[in-house]
Design brief:
Layout lengths: L1 H19 L30 E4 L6 E4 L7 E2 L6 E2 L12 H13 L3 E8 L6 H21 L7 E7 L8 H6 L3 E8 L1
Length: about 180
């Protein structure tokens, strides 16, 4: 009797152990996560048709164009880039957030959406958290510059739109916060 109950207990423990070991979540193919013909990050604008003007204070390029059907204007402000696995704003990237503050001051009818992105490395959950920390770090910096809190919202895309291949040079472009202009 003891042997049968011991075997049953061991079998039950093995089943519980195996059931508790969750597999690493499957990441979707990046092409399967795109929305619409331009993808989630697409602005619907042809880059050759977008006018640019230089920001006299920072030397940054400000692109102009129309809002999409969702009331979003992508590419009007430069993205802020980050080092691998970090969410702190590099000194060289702070001018882009200053330009965003200046843009909002000149255009008080608009708001900003800060979309945090990561490269492909790391789990989906970790990258969502890192994208959130990056977006909130950019928001905190904008608030420190005097931007009103109701003018800025954040969203983490994690590694949803990241490239699987290309190496570190390509992945550097995935470690960013996109500054999306929103209509009120």
């Amino acid at each position: 009797m003891k042997s049968a109950s011991k075997q049953f207990f061991l079998l039950l423990a093995a089943v519980a152990f195996l059931a508790g070991c969750a597999k690493k979540p499957m990441r979707p193919d990046p092409s399967a996560t795109l929305i619409g013909p331009q993808g989630a990050g697409g602005s619907g604008l042809n880059p050759t048709e977008v006018a640019t003007t230089a920001d006299a204070n920072s030397g940054l390029q400000m692109r102009t164009g129309g809002f999409d059907a969702n009331g979003q204007l992508r590419g009007a402000l430069d993205s802020v880039y980050f080092d691998f696995n970090l969410s702190s704003i590099k000194p060289a990237e702070r001018a882009k957030l200053q330009a965003a503050k200046d843009y909002l001051a000149k255009n008080p009818q608009y708001r900003l959406l800060l979309e945090g992105h990561c490269d492909w490395r790391g789990t989906a959950e970790y990258n969502l958290g890192l994208g959130d920390r990056r977006a909130n770090g950019a928001k905190k910096y904008l608030l420190s510059l005097g931007v009103a809190a109701d003018k800025v919202e954040t969203l983490s895309k994690g590694s949803e739109e990241a490239q699987k291949t290309g190496g570190d040079e390509a992945w550097k472009k995935d470690r960013r916060v996109d500054l999306v202009v929103l209509k009120q």
